[in-house]
Amino acid sequence: MNKTKFEAYQTLSDQPATDNVAWNMYGKGVENIGRNGRFEEVPLPKPNDDQMLVRVDSVGMCFSDVKLIRLGGEHPKLYNRDLAIEPTRLGHETAVTIIEVGQNLAEQYQVGQRLAIQPDAYQNGLSTAYGYTVPGGLIQYHLIGNELLETDAGACVLPLEGNLGYAETALLEPWGCVLAAYTQRRRLEPKQDGILWIVGQADDSRVYKMSRFLDRAKTIILTDVNDSIQQLVAKTGADLVVRNGVSTEEYATLNQELADGKGFDDIIMLNPQNAAQIHTLSKQIARRGTLNLVGTQPLDGLVDADVGRLHYDYIAFVGTTSDDMAESYGEARNRCDLHPNGVAVIVGAGGPMGQMHVQRAIELPQGPRLIIATELNQKRLDTLQTRFAPLAAENDCHLITFNPTNTDISLEELVMEQTNNQGADDVVICVPVASLMDEGNRLMNSDGMLVLFAGVPNGTMSPLNLSDVYLHNAQLTGTSGLTIDDQSAVMHRAMEGTLSPGRAVAAIGGMNAAQEGIVAMMESKYPGKIVIFPQIAEFPLVGLDELNEQFPQIGQHLGPNDLWTDAAEEALFNEFHGNGEPAA
Questions:
Q1: Whole-number Å distance between alpha carbons of 310 and 316
Q2: pLDDT (tens digit, 9 = 90+) per residue, 225-273?
Q3: Spatial distance between the Cα atoms of 292 and 285, rounded to a whole number of angstroms
Q4: CB neighbour list of residue 366: distance below 8 Å, 6 or more residues apart
Q5: Which of 6, 261, 268, 542 is close enough to 573 for a disulfide, judged by CB 3.0 to 4.6 Å?
Q6: What is the pTM of this model?
Q7: Cβ atoms of 476 and 447 closer than 8 Å
Q8: Under a CB-based contact definition with an 8 Å cutoff, are residues 294 and 325 in contact?
Q9: What is the mean pLDDT of the chain?
């Protein structure tokens, strides 16, 4: 029995590759992607003993590429590279199939094996990110070598299990970023052999203790602490430095002197009172460092906190009212996932990543009972309602969609109305705007969690209620990037049927439509992810809501509410792989 085109494609039994085309990037701006608005022919490479040749099956368009498009070789991950001489290539959300394996890799990888790529790669601490430093997936065939196989975290390729579709496989990467937002990325215990600074109040007579962790620090600095703290520290083997009477204006100088300006690994603030002091103190936290607030009275106001560092540097604000300073630490006290049976607010919910947060919350076992999804783009919001309200109903969850420009009440008023003036248990910010992060903090209840999924530049300040961190155990978290374990977790959830990555697809296109897809992504044209299939040379960029009208032979295989399916993907390949110009 003859194989269909799709079956031949899957089993590599169709004609071996001889041609190769790519969308290389030669400078800033969309106009410098490709040649004269088209892809270009490039040589088909041959792997050496330590490389493998892969076929790129699908590529997701990601808004994080916009920074690369705007900056070109000035992007931090390109290290001032001259792209006219050494071009890169977009496409870090990628599914590939191994076509040829070098002999030194033959025991680990096999021809026909399918892989997802984890793009956030580092070697010797420097980024070699796929789709940035290393040219990405907007090409039909490329080599994979030690730049992805021998990184600081090991191999940055994920062998696939099960039968995920090609589009679903490409979307393991953005889905992995979403799951990573709810896994603990902060360090929640004092650093071993770190530098600990304990700051007190000269008139504080409270007797403190520390039942755990104090013996971890290599160096302990004491400022204005009472005898109970000095006695605790004297029992450790740490190097002791006493600096009393240090003004807030001298904090940065102390950081430079005692921590080489890199920040203190851990800071404990006893009996915090002044918001301005906490603002200045928080600037002295090292990357992945902690600020432990130990007190019983609220601060005199909100704290201007660096929300960029919360996202990118994983700094942690922890706290307790206990006289045991150690009570602040640990994962048991500091949650990172959505509150069971709670109320979650997702800001920027209509974008591709926002939709994923909504979907995850709906499908999460013991997830929230109410999700308030807010979005300014009404078309996106309507799509969100159509696509996810039935799914929410299936999972005993109520979904409310809200556009603040189309109503007389504010988001804060809606949240308070729905929570009996208690506030939301969780607020997820998917838009990189500091004022929305400030608003999100105001929407929380006293022990709520604020998730800063979208990043703003380090140094971006937002007034946050840090009193609730120690008085009521509020959580402020952020996340950037993912690990291969995050992608693997998405894959296994998809195999179990508890997550459907393909729901995020909103538009598809062939290789010819990649540049148009990039522009559409930048303009937020579609309410979801755009997926390009590089092995289909000519197919227009089409929204799934238009697919049945334009290409009914594919559209008829979509799921309810125009959801992408494996059957639709199979029909696409059967109709257009190897056909040249698409037939209307």
A1: 7
A2: 999 999 999 999 899 999 999 999 999 999 999 999 999 999 999 999 9
A3: 11
A4: 340, 341
A5: 6
A6: 0.92
A7: no
A8: yes
A9: 94
